[in-house]
Structures are given as C-alpha cells and as structure tokens.
Design a protein that fits this description.
Low-confidence stretches: 1-34, 169-191, 282-291
Strand content: 15-25%
Oligomer: single chain
Helix content: 40-55%
Mean pLDDT: 88
Largest sheet: 8 strands, mixed
Shape: globular
Structural class: alpha+beta
Number of strands: 30
C-alpha cells in the first residue's frame, strides 16, 4: 500500500492543481434528488459529526479496464468548526484504504497534527482518524488518502459493462471523421466486445469509490483527474480541460477536468467508454442547433450501431430544456450537458449526475416524461438540493409534476394516453382507504406520500392559478440556488406569491394547507347535501375508508384543507378552477348561490383535489340522467365523467352510497367509448365481481358485464386498423380479457385453436408457442384434456427453460379453472401425494392463486376439511405452508353460508390449528364484517340487475355457461 500511495501521489501532484485551503465552504451547501426506495432507509441514518466540514476535493482516479480494479488518491480540504480530536469519513468496507500513509496537514502552519490511531468501524462504512490533540477551531486542514478497490458488474458505486458491435470499424473521437482514430494517426480497429466503466453514486455510494463526506448536506467543488486508455474517452460532470500522457510512450492518458461547481458527492459521476458522439447534423434540423436554450455544449453519445435511433433526440432535449428554462425563469446552470445511451446498462433509474445523464438505450426512444424528469433534476436536485433524505419526497414530487406538465405542454402527453394523473390518483384512493395503509411497509409509505404530494401540487396549480404557482416556484429556486432546502421552503415561497397575487387570504399559509395532506396517511371524503329550495348545500368532510370495518382510531379528529371548486349545470364552466370556498380544517361549511330545482352540481371536477365526493341521491340521479344524453356525454369532460363513475362505485363499495345509485351511474357507459372513462370500470367490475363471487347474484352480475362490454369490444374489433392509436389497442385488449373470463365464445374458440397447436406438437416441452392471453381462457372454459396437458407441461418442465414460464403456467393452472374437479386434482398431486416436482414455494403459489375466486377458495376449503388429518401430518414441520393454506382456505368468504362453513371447521378442530389459530380467528371476524355488507347490499344489487336485464337483452348465445 505504501508503494501504491507514493505512485499515486506523484500522479496527483503532476496533474491536479490543488485549490487553496478553505475554498468557499461557507458559500455552498446543497444536495440533490434521490430515488425514494433507496433513500428511505437513510432517513434514520446517523449523521457524520459536524466538527469538521469539507471545503473541496482533489481527486485522482485510475480505473483499469483489463483487471476490473481501480486505484486513486483524494486530497480533502476541511475546516474545523468545533474543537475535536477525531475525523470521521465514509469509506465502504469494500474500499481498501492505505491507512499507513494517510496524512493530515494544517494549511496555515504547514504542520501535521499527530495521529494516534486509525479505525475502520465494524459493520459501519466509517473511517475514523484519532489525533493526540484537538484540532484548531477555524483552521483548515488537508487530508491525503490513497485507496484502491474492485469494480463490480452491479450498478452500485463504480461498475463495469460491455456491449457488442459490428467488428472492423475504427473508433473515432470525432464522429464526423470516422477514419481518424483517437490518440494516434493509425486506425486501430475496434474489437467485437467493447468495455466501459461508469459510476452510479445515488444515494450513498460515493463511499464505495473514495473516502468522503458522503452526505447530501456537504456541497463542495471537485478538481478531478481520471486515467484512461487512449482507445477510450471520459465524460465527467464538467468539461475536459486538458489531456496528457501518464508517462512517456504510455498507452494511458490522464484527463483533467474543469473545477466543478459545489456539489454533493452523489451527483459526482463519470463514464469511461468508446461510445461515439451523435453528430448534430444527424440528430435534428440545423435550426435546432441555433436554439439559445440549454447549455453551451449539448452532446449525445451512443454506440455506432444505435446512433440512427437517436435522430430526433437532440431536438427533443432542446425542446424540453426550452420549456423548463421558461418555467423556472433560469437557464440550465451548466456549461455543458452530456446525454448517454449506454448499452447494457441495467439499473432501473437513469444515472442523473450533474451535467452527465446516463440512460438505458430504450429510455431515450420514449416520449418526453422520462427525459423531462432527468432534466428537472439538473435544477432541482443538483443545483438546489433537499436538506436531508426526509425531504426527498418533496423533490421527487415537484420533479414528477413538472415532468408531466412539460410532457403535456409539448405533445399533449401522448405517452400517458391521457392517464396522468389518474393512474396514481386511483392507487392513492385505494391505498389510503385501507384500514392499514402500506401494510405498514415504510418504503411503500415514502412512495405513496410522494405520489400524494404530487397530487397536492397539482391541486395548488389549479386553485392558486398556474401563473401564481409558477412564480412561487421561481421565487423559491432563485432564493435557494447552490443551497439546500427543506419542504417548508417550497411552501413558504408559494405562500408569499399567493398572498402577493391575492390568491390566498393573508391569514392562511400554503404550509398548513399542505401539512394537512402530506402528514396523514389518509385522504378525506366530502359529502354534499343540497337544499334545492334555498339554493344551498351543507358540505361535510370526514375520513374516507373503503375497507371494513371503519374502526380507524381518532378518525373524528382528522381534518383537511379542502378546496371546493363547483360547476353547475346552468353554465358547465370547467375552465374556472378557483375554489368557491375552502374548508379550512373545519368539519362543515355551507355553499350558497347554487341553482334551485332540477339542476345538478359537480364538486371537485377534473379531480382537482385528491378526494372523492358524495352527493344526496337526487343530485346523483340528475347526473346519471344527464350523462345518458348526447349533450351530457359531450359537455362533461372526460376526467370528470371518470371521476363521477369512480366515486359512485367506490363510495357504494365503502357503504356510503346505495348500490342502485352507483349502478345507475354506469348506464351511460353503453354509449361511452373514451378509454379514460372505461379504465376505472374494469377495476370496479373486478372488485365487485370478486366480492359477490360466492353469491347467487354473481351470475346476474356476469350477464350485466357481458351486456356492457360486448358492444364495446365488437365495435373496437370492427374498426381495428394498423394505424390506430395505442389506447384503442389497450382498451380492446382489456375488454377482450374480461369477456374471455366471462365465457365469450369467439375468444375461447380462438384460444383453443392456438392451444391445440401446442398439444399437437411433437416435442411440447421444448417451448410454449401459445401467447399468454390464451392460456387462462382455455384452462377456465376448455376441456379437462387441455388442462391436464398444461399440468404435464409443469411436471415435465425442462431445467433449461426460463423459470418464469413455468411459474405463469402454474398460476393459470390453479387460478383460472371454474371447475372444482381440476383444482381438486392439482391439490391431490401437490399436497396429498407430495409430488417431488412441486416445491413448497409452488404449493404456496397455488394457495395464493386459489384465493382469487370462490371456486378456488371453496374447493380448497373442502379439500382441507376432507383431508384434515393427512394434511396436518404433511405440514407438521412446514408452518409457513400450513398458515398459508388456512389463510387462503378460510379468509375469503363473504356470506353467512361461508361464515357457517368456517365456523363449523373451527369448532370441529379447535385447538388443532397451532400456528394458524390466530389466522382462522381473524378470518371469522372478517367474514362476519363482510357478511353484514352482503346482507345490506346483495338484495339491492340483485333488484337493480333484474330490472336492468328486463330492459336489456344479453347476447347469451355468444357465451359459454
């Protein structure tokens, strides 16, 4: 290690111009955006002591492609802010540090404080240097450390990768001169396999690359030099300043880069590769390059074979940058920006280093949203950074909102197919209406909190007005540049602008408004009860709970700031999104000036706020009647129609609305063809269908679904074309899937024809030629022979094939059949016979799939009851399987009949359930609650369905069963 340090130090002195001690540390302290799933565990992380703070880094790195190793040296200038005799740095255990030659020098006196010892803290990525005496407060010190490590294929810290390309083509630094190889006059041909080395340091992986203060609070400049082969080039956060040979006649070069702006360690990044720059003239029109937006240098890099796929990327990047610069009112704070399409890059998220963004190749061929999000992070994340990981969700929420807003303004958000923000909105409604949101999973909580914050930002954009909202964010970013921020800093900037523009009363703040939303793992429900004679309405708010029982503690104390935006039938003006009145964490308010007589109102149109709205039955009926007219379907916007439908069904499911009223709201769907209105319908059909699956009403409900979906599907099939929009393809696929499950003959027959080709093949175990969409309909409605064929394919599945194919086949074998005999056969083989071809994980998967429908869990229950003693013996030492079986066999019943069945089993075998005792007790409690729901709602649903079927003829001849 001593020799390593000495050689590295020579390199450092030769190629790094060290900054003055104490450079600018007080002026710059910021951080950047982060992936919440990775950042969440860091929220409670112990922070480094603040007695010593970094001022700047001088870093020398030597990655070695051939050996997948790297070495380096770092000089860290620090300032002592409080008397201390120890220095603590982050250094991952995989990083080897030369502790023997570690040096610390006081800048002002050029003396070295005596080091007592150096420790690597067990089980923590910390390096602690202990001194004999306290360091001097206010003095600057320089810490010199040499290190080395290995480069891994996994994308954490520093990683390596490779790709293949057509051989026999020379590498060129200048893409316009392919015959001029880099680093010499000869044209050395590139081999088939190309290697690269890159970094992915978010959120806390800089410590894997070099010892550092690896926290987002420490924002400091970097002076960096990197060694590379002549055949490769290095892209870094800043522009290349100069290159020179590592030694005389060396095949290695040392690149020194311009001093970075102050930045957090996880925004540091480089890529060493032989990728080529995409020529500007091949990336878009010449006019694009004259656009003044963006950095002085915008470069796009890709492998030679992929450059033609990025023809429009430069134009798209510049267009996106122009929109963002206009929104922020600030130019991109960088001299250059490199965007890389990296072949073989496996990480889920792009590596959005400051000034260097690394994408998967496929990500650069899709829409504007992902591109906009990474570019937003160049402002909000790199330039302006959240103060600690606990504020990362605010950063991500703003980036998500602005990215969607930018994509919509550029091309109408074509990639969303109009689904933003409905997709996240519906999932929020579902998650926060559970008795236990997130299933108490903390990481999931961070993601849903971020999604809810994004929806709250959208609500503020509507209610404060787009101009006020934008000016507020501009005020925030101007005041925080090169600094950190807390979530409250965003809300304070919006408050000041809203007061200035008189969009919010002086006594109110955006901070308290937002806090009422994002500090609760809940959302409200608003109920509007009108007085039609007086033209008023009593509006109340309470916690929205969809899952029963509604026994959440302290729910009566939960109140929100809720904007009441009202549209009346008199005007149907959906352009005015200002709140008629705010519910300022009050239980009830009154709306005045509403129309009298038979004119409906709509509260919270277009899902301006993330909350469902209930009405009195008369207003619901007025809405249902109006939507059945051509005028109604034309004049009420798509999002509002979807909201009315979604709210009605979910409120009915929660027990807050009569189901007959909710079903009336679906009648207009007989004529509706917009996919955004249809999307929530499929989920709702699925939820209600599963809940009433065991009852006699289910068959009538299935007829209702068939009547609703058949005209839609057949119309979409009739108008099918090669040039049609993707939303039509997706809507047709959804309708077909539901109709197949309902026994639609053309679908089942098509699936059986496809399946027969597999059955007739000479070697059926070599591969599956049948599309996945066909397998479930065959197993549900097809013959026993077809199902048995599928079972044998699972049993005989070759080791050489993908395990995921077998898993899918097993899922459909268990979860699709509507005949108990098929399920009973599968359970006999896997449980009673204990067939060696099925693992415990397979059996658990079967139990899980059987819980998806009444045929499955009823058959499983009967199987358990009949074979109790044998199963108990089989699962004697397999507690997990036993618990899973009891849960799946007893937990899904929803009627009194089901309660009686489970209750008898419990009494018959009381004391024999062992580890599953609490599971069946919980099942009985839940079934009792669901039975109440069924007793209250099934008669209402059945009566409505009888009336519906009397007035609408279902094409029963087109269906099995």
């Amino acid at each position: 290690m001593g020799k390593l340090f000495a050689s590295l130090l020579v390199g450092v002195v030769g190629v790094i111009a060290l900054l003055p001690c104490g450079y600018g540390w007080r002026e710059y302290r910021i951080r950047r955006s982060i992936d919440l799933s990775a950042a969440n565990p860091l929220i409670s992380d112990a922070r480094l002591p603040t007695d010593l703070v970094p001022v700047n880094y001088s870093l020398y790195l030597h990655p070695v492609l051939e050996r997948a190793t790297f070495s380096g040296a770092v000089n860290i200038t620090i300032v002592c802010t409080k008397a201390t005799n120890q220095l603590t740095l982050h250094a991952h255990h995989d990083l080897r540090v030369d502790e023997v030659n570690l040096r610390v020098r006081q800048c002002e006196t050029d003396t070295e404080p005596r080091i007592r010892r150096i420790d690597r803290v067990p089980k923590k990525p910390l390096l602690v240097v202990y001194f004999h005496d306290d360091l001097t407060v206010g003095a600057s010190y320089e810490v010199r450390i040499a290190f080395d490590g290995s480069i891994w294929e996994n994308v954490e810290g520093i990683f390596e990768g490779k790709y293949k390309q057509q051989a026999g083509q020379p590498f060129s630094q200048d893409p316009a001169a392919d015959d001029q190889p880099m680093g010499g006059a000869g044209a050395d041909l590139v081999a088939d396999e190309h290697k690269y080395i890159g970094t992915y340091l978010r959120p806390h992986h800089a410590r894997r690359l070099f010892p550092c203060f690896d926290e987002p609070a420490h924002k400091t400049p970097f002076q960096v030099s990197i060694v590379r082969p002549r055949t490769h080039h290095v892209l870094f956060n800043t522009e290349l300043e100069r290159s020179e040979p590592l030694a005389t006649n060396s095949t290695l070069m040392v690149d020194q880069f311009k001093l970075t702006p102050p930045m957090s360690t996880f925004t540091f990044g480089f890529l060493m590769s032989d990728l080529l720059e995409v020529p500007p003239q091949a990336a878009g029109s010449e006019a694009d390059d004259e656009t003044s937006c963006g950095p002085k240098k915008l470069r796009i890099w890709a492998r030679r074979d992929f450059r033609d796929s990025l023809v429009q990327l430069r134009k798209r990047v510049k267009l996106t940058l122009a929109k963002l610069e206009s929104y922020w009112g600030v130019e991109l704070p960088l001299e250059k920006l490199d965007i890389v399409a990296l072949p073989g890059f496996t990480h889920v998220k792009p590596a959005d280093n400051w000034g260097l963004i690394i994408f998967k190749e496929s990500e650069l061929q899709q829409g504007y949203y992902g591109l906009a999000q990474e570019l937003v992070y160049q402002w909000l994340g790199s330039w302006i950074t959240p103060h600690w990981w606990s504020d990362a969700h605010v950063n991500k929420a703003i980036a998500g909102f602005l990215s969607a807003d930018t994509a919509i303004k550029i091309d109408g958000g074509a990639e969303f197919e109009g689904k933003w923000p409905m997709t996240i909105l519906y999932s929020i409604y579902y998650e926060f209406s559970k008795r236990y949101p997130h299933s108490r999973i903390t990481a999931m909580k961070q993601e849903t909190t971020c999604s809810k914050t994004e929806l709250v930002l959208r609500m503020l954009n509507y209610t404060l007005g787009e101009d006020t909202f934008r000016r507020g964010l501009q005020k925030f970013i101007r005041n925080r540049k090169y600094r950190t921020f807390y979530g409250d800093d965003v809300w304070e900037a919006l408050t000041k602008q809203a007061h200035l523009d008189r969009r919010l009363c002086e006594s109110a703040t955006v901070n308290e408004l937002v806090d009422s939303w994002i500090t609760k793992d809940r959302i409200p429900m608003v109920k509007v009860v009108r007085d039609y004679e007086k033209g008023t309405a009593a509006v109340t708010q309470r916690l929205y709970l969809r899952e029963r029982p509604h026994d959440v503690p302290e729910q009566d104390k939960m109140l929100w700031w809720i904007p009441l935006v009202v549209v009346t039938q008199d005007t149907l003006d959906f352009s005015n999104t200002s709140a008629t009145k705010w519910m300022k964490q009050t239980r009830e308010v009154e709306l005045e000036g509403l129309p009298t007589g038979d004119r409906f109102i709509i509260v919270n149109p277009e899902e301006i706020g993330p909350f469902p709205v209930n009405y009195d039955q008369r207003n619901w009926n007025l809405l249902a009647s109006y939507l059945q007219t051509d005028e109604g379907r034309r004049r009420i916007p798509v999002y509002t129609k979807a909201k009315l439908l979604h709210d009605a069904w979910n409120l009915a499911y929660a027990g807050d609305l009569n189901f007959a009223t909710a079903f009336n709201m679906t009648l207009f769907m007989m004529y509706e063809r917009n996919h955004l209105v249809w999307n929530p319908v499929f989920t709702l059909i699925d939820h209600i269908g599963r809940h009433i699956d065991m009852s006699a009403v289910h068959k009538k409900f299935e007829t209702y679904v068939r009547t609703l979906l058949t005209p839609l599907y057949e119309e979409l099939v009739g108008s099918q074309s090669d040039e049609e929009e993707m939303w039509k393809v997706n809507l047709r696929s959804l309708a077909k899937n539901f109709l197949c499950r309902a026994g639609y003959k053309p679908c089942i027959e098509e699936a059986q024809r496809a399946f027969r080709k597999w059955m007739d093949s000479a070697e059926p175990d070599i591969g599956n030629p049948v599309a996945n969409q066909y397998i479930c309909p065959v197993f549900k409605w097809g013959t026993r022979e077809e199902w048995e064929f599928g079972l044998q394919r699972v049993i005989n599945f070759p080791e050489s094939r993908l395990k995921s194919e077998r898993t899918y086949l097993l899922k459909t074998l268990a979860g699709c059949p509507s005949q108990a005999s098929k399920i009973d056969r599968l359970l006999t083989i896997t449980v009673l016979e204990d067939n060696g071809n099925f693992t415990d994980n397979d059996v658990s998967l079967i139990f899980k799939m059987l819980s998806g429908g009444s045929t499955g869990y009823t058959t499983l229950f009967n199987f358990l009851k009949t074979n109790w003693d044998t199963i108990k013996l089989r699962f004697k030492d397999r507690e997990s399987l036993w618990d899973n079986m009891i849960n799946s066999a007893t937990g899904l019943f929803t009627t009194q009949e089901g309660y009686d069945m489970v209750s008898r089993l419990y009494l018959q075998h009381q004391g024999e359930f062992d580890t599953a005792e609490h599971i069946i007790e919980k099942s009985l409690k839940n079934i009792k609650e669901e039975t109440k729901w069924s007793d209250e709602n099934l008669p209402v649903i059945e009566k409505w369905l009888d009336t519906f079927m009397a007035n609408n003829s279902a094409a029963s001849q087109k269906f099995f069963g």
